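New to this. Look over this protein:
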Amino acid sequence: MSTAHLQDLESGAPVSLETYARVTTALELWPELLATDARQRQRARSQDQDFVHAAMGELEARRLRSNGFGVAMDEPYQHYQFAGRADVVAWDLEHRALLHIENRTGFPNVQEALGSYSAKRSYLGGVLADRLAIEGGRWLSVSHGMIALWSAEVLHTLRLRTESFRAACPDSPEQFLGWWAGAALTVRGATSALVLFDPTPALPDRRRFASLELSLIHRPRYHDYADAVDRLKS
């Protein structure tokens, strides 16, 4: 297969079923065929644009609050020309520890997504330290997590832009998983990790997450955004 033909496939251009089968076989993946009406799926996404994102935030906030942490949703911040909102933040005042979660159901623009995330990594902690009157004006531990829907769409992007995501999220997800488990937070400084997340409510925790490195070999839990909407509403 020529390089140009493979690049056409990666960019989303139509190719033959034989091409898909050859590529998935070479990557030791299992090809699946889903016949669906694209118009219906697009309509489902437009009607429920924030449904999965909201479901992810709700599950995270409930878990973190039940672990005894302070939690805020859609928290605004501004640092000179940089401004935005953090999807979920949690804090442990006793240990001067902060968790920042950026939920992503897709990456239509990777550069824009990573730029926004990097700005929050740089400035959000200082803004919240001032707002919450943290002793000494700074956190001892800051954990940033880009929490991505465990879908085929997201996996495709991660596999195309692996080094970009490794640069933005170079750390293991241990700190995030510690917050999730309510364990003591001992790592000082700032960490940044990408975690694949399955927001199915009753799912055991050990099957809910995967790291960036594991995402390169794992199969998706959802086909796309519309599939996640259908299954979370069922």
Observations:
- The chain has two domains: 1-33, 48-233.
- Residues 110-131 form the longest helix (22 residues).
